[in-house]
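Lab notebook: predicted structure, single chain.

Context: the supervisor wants predicted structures on file for every construct in the current expression panel, including those that have not yet been purified. This is the next one on the list. No modifications to the sequence; it matches the entry in the shared construct table.
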Amino acid sequence: MTDDAGTSGPCTPLDEVRAWVRDARRIAVLTGAGISAESGVPTFRDAQTGYWAQFNPMEMASETGFRAQPARVWDWYAHRRGLLAGVQPNAGHRALAAFAQHGRGRLTLITQNVDGLHQRAGSPDVLCLHGDLTADRWLDRPRACCDLAHAVPGHPPRCPTCGNLVRPGVVWFGEALPLPVLAAAQQAAQSCELMLVVGTAGAVYPAAGLAHQARHAGARVVVVNTAASELDGIAHAVLRGPAARLLPLLLDGPPMVGAP
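Prediction complete. Output recorded below exactly as produced.
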């Protein structure tokens, strides 16, 4: 395993990984909170500040907590959405988007983040394992009368006919990941030739398990992170540094010769 993207010599780890990117026909990228933190997005626990510090975050991010205190939990998510105001995708987000747009289907982007910055940067078909903070959905199975566009405003909004509550479109503690998204992510991990693991500590499963699946299937695994992660030990290369600096360097090379 190699690390330190700044190593001097005829072929640095960064050069080697750039060659892997150039040659790979299928690339999977798994991103975590680190890439968004570089844009100033507070982590889940960072959002528990000020007034919100008095509440248990496990209760604020669970169905049980929402049903017990729907107004409180809804307002906390409104607070978190407000923290995203003015936050912009960084160079790492943009590099991934540009590569996906011009890579002729070579890259599949999987994220644990719920902030929507990959989508705002222009990445298509992002696989959001933990949902989308900017989206809403119904708390209970929607009936024919349930239409998000006509929900009655409130804390939280509700269906005017049956009273079904609107909830944030994220995956709460105790909930399963969306099965179609997880299946697509697992397929990408098992079929890729190269996986980039960016800005994640590698401690949350099943997301971190995708890197193990890629490694077991024969793919090269590269960790891009500012600090040590739990996935460093299975990586073929570790590039230590911010995604906003390293991803543009990795992904700005010429298209692969002979790519379909």
